[in-house]
Design a protein that fits this description.
Structural class: mainly alpha
Keywords: Membrane, Transmembrane, Transmembrane helix
Protein name: Amino acid transporter transmembrane domain-containing protein
CATH class: Mainly Alpha
Radius of gyration: 22 Å
Subcellular location: Membrane
Membrane topology: Multi-pass membrane protein
Distance between the termini: 44 Å
GO cellular component, one term: vacuolar membrane
Largest sheet: none
Shape: globular
CATH topology: Amino acid/polyamine transporter I
Strand content: under 5%
CATH architecture: Up-down Bundle
Number of helices: 16
Length: 441
Amino acid sequence: MELQKTDTESNGGLSDEEYEPFRHRRVKKPNSTNGTIIHMLKGSLGTGILAMPSAFRNGGLVFGVIGTTLVGLIYAHCVYLLVSTSQKSCKRTRVPVLGFSETAQSVFRHGPAPTQRFANAAKAYIDYSLLIVSFFSVCVYLLFIATTLRDVINNELGIDWDTRIYILLTAVPLIFVTQVRDLRYLVPFSALANTLILVTFGITLYYIFREPIDLSNRELFPEITALPSFFGTVVYAVEGIGVVLPVENKMKHPQHFLACPGVVSIVLSFITVLYNVTGFFGYARYGPGTRASVTLNLPSEEKLAVSTQLLAALAILFTLGIYYYVPMDILWRKVKHYFPVERHNIAQIGIRFGILVAMTGLALGVPELEPFIGLVGSICSATLGLLTPIVLDTVFRWSTPGAFGVFRWRMVKNVILMAFGLFILVVGTYFSIKDIVEIYG
């Protein structure tokens, strides 16, 4: 992202306090507040919702609701910290708009003296973290499609093919999907994928509620060892931090983003309620047999259920082009100068294909969906969605007298939230890897 710079003369010599970034933004076709709400919903409301019953299986009915609500509140607060820090950094540096990595760079560059040397490293860290999150998500989606095809085709044809065969079969169309570089050709497929996800979700709810639900044999609270998997899955499902600043930067009225009620409070309240309902009743319906994606629990003997599973897989296939576009755009901007201009086309083809091969290899090595979702949530989502906004807020406030409030309560709050994020990162990663080792050890 290229920063829009505004010089001091054009600002009329305004002080940092008087400079208003929103007035200097020049956005072609800005999004309305309602349009921004829709974009935020698309960023957070994805296939993760289908994993919520699995999360409640690990967390129990009562703690599942409490834990999911807690994660929703913490994530909403972290979004608030990220956006408010970005807006204050714009004001301090007289720049109309900053992206995620540019915000990190600005915060460290103008922060306490010991942090200033890490400004470029902070920018690179965000960029590469977004790359890792996006590519790991490709692995999760690849596994989701392969697992769905395995269940449907093996059942319909009476065969017993391994998941790895379906991973390889799924990778074939992805060779072509991941080579699409023009966003114009991907947007219609993304819109179709969103429609298919909504249809899948609706039919899944029909199967969950079509018969009375008995709660008598369901766990209410988790075992201690299951907590990291619960939190890792919920954080993975809820987190969509990568779309937050790009969406806010294109608003017609960006002041509505953090308002009360505003975009953040409306979207994340809706998401939290929806995820709680799906997780609670999904686990209540299927109990200990709840699988990594609730669509895999639908009755395989019913054509509607089978078609729903295939629709979900198709939706993910259509979405993968968009998920591949974002990290490849970041990566290509970083490496294109290493190649002569006349070789840019062949270089892009090779890099895109090579990364797909690597992600397919990773999926082949760990062809189990549930521990992989927990691993991605613990490592990637906890780092970007929880820890990074807290660190940026802390560094930004460090040199400003009184910025942490009476008795430095904001510092205390940030330390507590950081401890929670580190818990998910360290403990969640440990148990996810332990589960993978136990499965394949």
